[in-house]
Amino acid sequence: MGTISVLCAMWACAFGAEREASGPHFEGQSPSPGVAVPRSDGNGWKTIYPADFNNDGMVDVLWQRTRHNLMAVWLMNGSQLLAPGPVISGPIGDGWAAISAGDFNQDHMADVFWYNSPQNLVAIWLMNGSQLLAPGPVIPGPIGDGWVAVTSAADFNSDGMNDVVLNNPRQNLMTVWLMNGSQLLAPGPVIPGPIGDGWTASSTADFNADGMADVLWNNARRNLMAVWLMNGAQLLAPGPNIPGPNGDGWVTITAFDFNVDGMADVLWHNAGQNLMAVWLMDGSQLLAPGPNIPGPIGAGWVPAQGAADFNFDGTADVLWNNAAQNLMAVWLMDGSQLLAPGPNIPGPFEN
Ligand SMILES: [Ca+2]
Ligand SMILES: [Ca+2]
Ligand SMILES: [Ca+2]
Ligand SMILES: [Ca+2]
Questions:
Q1: Which positions of the chain have pLDDT values less than 50?
Q2: Which one of the ligands is nearest to 315 CA?
Q3: How many A from CA of 197 to the centre of ligand 4?
Q4: Domain ranges in the chain?
Q5: Residue 333: nearest ligand to its CA?
Q6: Over the stretch 121-142, which tens digit does the pLDDT of each residue have?
Q7: Which of 32, 72, 137, 195 is most buried, judging by how many CB atoms fall within 10 Å of its CB?
Q8: For residue 218, what is the enclosing H or E element?
Q9: What's the Cα-to-Cα distance from 260 to each of 37, 250, 320, rounded to whole Å?
Q10: At the fourth CATH level, which superfamily is domain 46-346?
């Protein structure tokens, strides 16, 4: 797709966005040009998560605009934009945020995990490509204060349907809730986190290739990570605490398989130094820490809290977002090495 056609697609999205703010979803119509203007200072849109929404084997991108409770799915062709989808209003009420995307109902099309942090509520919205198929029920989260949703999408009980993980950093607790589509199947036990203060459940992915997702813990203050292997919603084996990359400011962003051995690896990011690194894992043990790689040029770039394989080589790639500049970029990886940085792509905009 050339620059002109990309821009036309962007215009269509911008106009769709204005219409969409009043309703749950819509069918796009031809825009009349000359009204919307892209903003160089950003407008609140963020790339949240990569996932295949239309079952064409190619990973797409979930956008959200939290302040206005909006989401959009952009269908991708590798690291190029194929078609920006309509802007869709989220669940009714304040406080909702789209957290992540993954397949909850076994139709091989990704769905959207919504969480309302102030009210501690969960909702799964089933999608059909970039269109809303069916908004699921609003489900109250675990009892007590301080719960947050873990930004990831993974299946803990090998039933082909994603499950939901909630973390309570204040009380150092986590729990896996097994889902059946957009319905709650079984809330798992509340499990205490690693010993000491400062731990957060950072992400989830299958680290030991048993088909069941595991939990990546991060302690940014102490620069530590740990992988806890799970058996469904039960803790199987807590892994060792592993020191992070040298220097201050590193956080674990997400876990995904970067070297095609079926075991998830860890993506690190250092916002202050604009660096990323992929550390290859062998179960809950560190296999090989990858090199520190400079991020995209300019300030404000952060990797999305999910990785995915954008170019069919089986290895995970990195989805970058610059919310201030309203840009995204897909960087293709080869294991822990950078293969090819993709173009910067402007995000949704409206007047
Ligand atoms: Ca796709
Ligand atoms: Ca499941
Ligand atoms: Ca596992
Ligand atoms: Ca791996």
A1: 1-41, 351
A2: 4
A3: 29
A4: 46-346
A5: 4
A6: 999 999 999 999 999 999 999 9
A7: 72
A8: strand 214-219
A9: 42, 25, 21
A10: YVTN repeat-like/Quinoprotein amine dehydrogenase (2.130.10.10)
